């Protein structure tokens, strides 16, 4: 506070000078106080801005899943316009009918004939072939089969030594045969049933009563049988020219771990690891030398920028977040969002062969220059520090946004990896955590087997059944995925 004596008029020139110097000192103190208040105000404004952005986070402007959106956020989602077409089949569509099963494959045939006489008194001659064939499909009442293996013993009449027969190697050691083990594994990996639900299914449909521990041991046998095909998937994916990678949380008890995925067109490979660090990403990728499509996670930085493509839908969600900000930061975000959508459109038109390759690349180069200029303007912002830092970060990694221009096989999105992880996310919600190392090994293995079988068009259950039969009866698993000659089947 200023000295009260400064309010008194000076009597001499020296007193006036002294009073002026003291006043300047007070002014300096007030300036420092004002500058501190300004700094505190700017800090509070920044905190309020960050809190508002956090409250406005949703699946549209961040990596959060759609299930985490609030009721109001779900109501504000952009809805597709209601179709003017009526429900059901449209006029002129191709008719789909179930083909008739040949008579040789029908279990039972019941024939119906008209009466022998007509109402006019004449006789009716029956046609040699039926005019209508109507087939009814049903499932039989199922029951398990039991094979009892009896071991006899004997005694030597010479030395008195006791002998006992031994079971052949083709007899399983446990109480479950290969078909049952395959069914349990398939119910887990394909239909995401928990062990308790599998136990209930076996009772309700097959009148089989097994403990939870026995079902868990059956999964362990399936893990052993499918080990070689699982490793075949990993080797195959790492040899592909283009692959997708992503990761999601995995829980063992209360411990948070991670499920990693490496996906290509024909196969998907999963791996459970304790961390989300670079070493875990390196173990997933192995000797992979192709183009890798990912989000902006730094764990994949071992892959050179020249071989890495960033997911444009992730960038679009980030630009939506920036576009919602005020002042120049919001303008930069809206401009980046406009350019991102402009990149998607010619890509789709080129894939649909609506524009030729020369026009496509010319437009992309023009968009790339505008994208770079907009990021540079955002990197020079003075007020919105967060937008400035995000633009500076993207400038350093800008080349990874345009890797798809090097090879037409590189997509703009990482949807393939995200879709591959979706069955596990559903399974995690239904069954939650694993409880042992055995469970950590079973989940990625069975997901890899089922997902790969679906991608190449073969029956996942038949593949698992053959592998379990070879492992438990023949002693050697020889079945492998036919990546070179895929067959169409129901999985």
TrEMBL record:
Residues 48-105 are annotated as: Disordered. Residues 58-72 have a biased composition (Low complexity). Residues 75-88 have a biased composition (Basic residues). Coiled coil: none annotated. InterPro entries: DUF6444, Transposase-related, Transposase_IS66_central. Residues 2-98 form the DUF6444 domain. NCBIfam families: transpos_IS66. This is Transposase IS66 central domain-containing protein. It comes from Granulosicoccus antarcticus IMCC3135.
């Amino acid at each position: 506070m200023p000295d009260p004596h400064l309010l008194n008029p000076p009597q001499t020139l020296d007193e006036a000078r002294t009073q002026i110097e003291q006043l300047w000192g007070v002014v300096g103190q007030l300036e420092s106080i004002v500058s501190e208040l300004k700094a505190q105000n700017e800090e509070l404004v920044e905190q309020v801005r960050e809190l508002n952005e956090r409250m406005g986070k949703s699946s549209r402007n961040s990596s959060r899943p759609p299930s985490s959106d609030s009721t109001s956020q779900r109501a504000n989602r952009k809805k597709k316009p209601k179709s003017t077409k009526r429900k059901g089949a449209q006029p002129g569509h191709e008719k789909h009918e179930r083909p008739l099963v040949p008579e040789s494959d029908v279990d039972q045939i019941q024939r119906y004939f008209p009466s022998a006489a007509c109402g006019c008194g004449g006789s009716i001659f029956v046609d040699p072939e039926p005019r209508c064939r109507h087939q009814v499909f049903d499932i039989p009442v199922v029951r398990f089969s039991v094979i009892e293996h009896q071991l006899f013993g004997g005694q030597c009449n010479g030395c008195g030594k006791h002998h006992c027969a031994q079971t052949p190697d083709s007899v399983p050691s446990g109480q479950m045969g290969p078909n049952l083990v395959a069914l349990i594994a398939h119910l887990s990996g394909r239909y995401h049933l928990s062990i308790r639900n599998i136990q209930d299914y076996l009772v309700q449909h097959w009148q089989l009563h097994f403990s939870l521990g026995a079902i868990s041991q059956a999964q362990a046998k399936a893990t052993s049988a499918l080990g070689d095909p699982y490793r075949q998937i990993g080797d195959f994916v790492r040899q592909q020219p283009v692959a997708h990678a992503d990761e999601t949380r995995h829980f063992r008890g209360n411990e948070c771990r991670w499920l990693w995925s490496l996906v290509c067109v024909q196969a998907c490979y999963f791996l459970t690891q304790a961390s989300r660090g670079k070493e875990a990403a390196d173990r997933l990728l192995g000797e992979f030398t192709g183009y890798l499509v990912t989000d902006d996670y730094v764990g994949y930085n071992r892959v050179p920028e020249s071989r890495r493509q960033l997911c444009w839908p992730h960038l679009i969600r980030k630009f939506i977040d920036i576009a919602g900000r005020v002042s120049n930061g919001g303008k930069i975000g809206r401009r980046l969002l406009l350019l991102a959508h402009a990149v998607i459109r010619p890509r789709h038109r080129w894939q649909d062969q609506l524009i030729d390759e020369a026009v496509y690349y010319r437009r992309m180069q023009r968009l790339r220059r505008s994208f770079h200029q907009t990021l540079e303007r955002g990197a020079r912002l003075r007020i919105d520090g967060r937008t400035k830092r995000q633009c500076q970060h993207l400038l350093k990694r800008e080349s990874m946004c345009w890797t798809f221009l090097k090879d037409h096989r590189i997509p703009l999105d990482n949807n393939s990896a995200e879709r591959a992880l979706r069955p596990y996310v559903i399974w995690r919600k239904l069954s939650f955590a694993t409880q042992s190392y055995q469970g950590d090994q079973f989940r990625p293995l069975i997901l890899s087997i089922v997902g790969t079988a679906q991608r190449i068009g073969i029956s996942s259950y038949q593949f698992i059944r053959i592998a379990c039969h070879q492992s438990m009866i023949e002693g050697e698993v020889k079945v492998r995925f036919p990546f070179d000659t895929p067959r169409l089947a129901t999985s």
